[in-house]
Amino acid sequence: MDVRLVEKALLGLFVAAVVATVVSKLRGKKLKLPPGPIPVPIFGNWLQVGDDLNHRNLTAFAKRFGEIFLLRMGQRNLVVVSSPDLAKEVLHTQGVEFGSRTRNVVFDIFTGKGQDMVFTVYGEHWRKMRRIMTVPFFTNKVVSQYRYGWEEEAMRVVEDVKADPMAASEGIVLRRRLQLMMYNNMYRIMFDRRFERMDDPLFERLKVLNGERSRLAQSFEYNYGDFIPILRPFLRGYLRICKEVKDRRLKLFKDYFVEERKKLASTKSVDNAGLKCAIDHILDAEKKGEINEDNVLYIVENINVAAIETTLWSIEWGIAELVNHPDIQQKLRNELDTVLGPGIQITEPDTQKLPYLQAVIKETLRLRMAIPLLVPHMNLHDAKLAGYDIPAESRILVNAWWLANNPAHWKNPEEFRPERFLQEEAKVEANGNDFRYVPFGVGRRSCPGIVLALPILGITIGRLVQNFELLPPPGQAKIDTSEKGGQFSLHILKHSTIVAKPRVF
Ligand code: HEM
Question: Could you tell me whether strands 395-398 and 76-81 are parallel, antiparallel, or unpaired per DSSP bridges?
Answer without folding.
Answer: parallel
